[in-house]
Amino acid sequence: xxxxxxxxxxxxxxxxxxxxxxxxxxxxxxxxxxxxxxxxxxxxxxxxxxxxxxxxxxxxxxxxxxxxxxxxxxxxxxxxxxxxxxxxxxxxxxxxxxxxxxxxxxxxxxxxxxxxxxxxxxxxxxxxxxxxxxxxxxxxxxxxxxxxxxxxxxxxxxxxxxxxxxxxxxxxxxxxxxxxxxxxxxxxxxxxxxxxxxxxxxxxxxxxxxxxxxxxxxxxxxxxxxxxxx
Amino acid sequence: xxxxxxxxxxxxxxxxxxxxxxxxxxxxxxxxxxxxxxxxxxxxxxxxxxxxxxxxxxxxxxxxxxxxxxxxxxxxxxxxxxxxxxxxxxxxxxxxxxxxxxxxxxxxxxxxxxxxxxxxxxxxxxxxxxxxxxxxxxxxxxxxxxxxxxxxxxxxxxxxxxxxxxxxxxxxxxxxxxxxxxxxxxxxxxxxxxxxxxxxxxxxxxxxxxxxxxxxxxxxxxxxxxxxxx
Lengths: 230, 230
Hints:
homodimer, 46% helix, Co_AT_N_dom (chains A, B), globular, 6-stranded parallel β-sheet, alpha/beta, CblAdoTrfase_CobA (chains A, B), 10 helices, EC 2.5.1.17 (chains A, B), Rossmann fold, P-loop_NTPase (chains A, B)
């Protein structure tokens, strides 16, 4: 797979390099004349137009948001918001529930039928204190998720914290990987949670690691706040 | 600053270590009896309750989403969605505009007056091909941003791609850092864009680097898709 470079790929690589060479513009070379600047940006514009032309395939993507940092779930939510903005339906299945009523679910009501939201379970492991119940809830949520995955009426399915459910041993990773491949050609699926395995990463089209750059003293003692954590 | 460890910090550190020692539970030690499991999760629950009690401060945060990966803007949007869910007002100022009508702005209409959205400029540098106009637009957007920052009616201000505007030399970083410090005590501000400087990172309370784990062959030739890129 890694060695198969198509003609199309090499055309795209060339365009990417041209774009890089021309640069982003801006005010970084202030002694460049306006005329010269305009000319350069004109060239960049031509490269951009070519780039857009070359990238013509549409594809339902498997997207993984992982890492120890913040933003895994919130980035998925933002994608949901955009997708609804384009008038498509979105389903969110939350596999590990926090101990509070999330701001998301309050905001979700406004979207009516365009957004389906299912919260699995009743809280963290230390809230339920019952493995078997947790496992059953995760499994039944997964069955629900599969029904949305297969349904061509949904453009985006968010499997929130499903990676944590895998890590806790509540559900089999292969079952998830097989399940997400049942989606229609143009459906996108987002999986979130820290600790994605190599195998899951390799099954995905786009993987982002949210990496926390610590500010320990600034974070200490500050409680979970509305909008930020929930 | 780094050496100042308060009593409160050391209590929090102890609790964090206890939580780590007890673990998250789940199905990872399947030969543990149900009774033993319940007991362990009971202990973890006690630690969690203590943790929540210790973390009691509320504070308006400076949040930076940076890095080469995806999710910087979408995570900020998700935070906006949550904040509105809690019935607060949100303002978004977009400093670098994409070449298309974003799905966000379509979705935003549904929130009415709870969400103010301002798109600065008419597109990337290679669309306008005019540095001076770009600079003026960025500066006028910044003035608008400052008026929202100072307004106690807004709980969250998103300065989208402002870090790119700084990097392009369109606006002075110190001006931004001084400006965000004009916020009321409990207002959160999110700054997004790749290439945050050390100085900006040190001014923030919470910094996340969105790191792209590449899948170059899978991404090649795929066009920008609704909900994913715009």
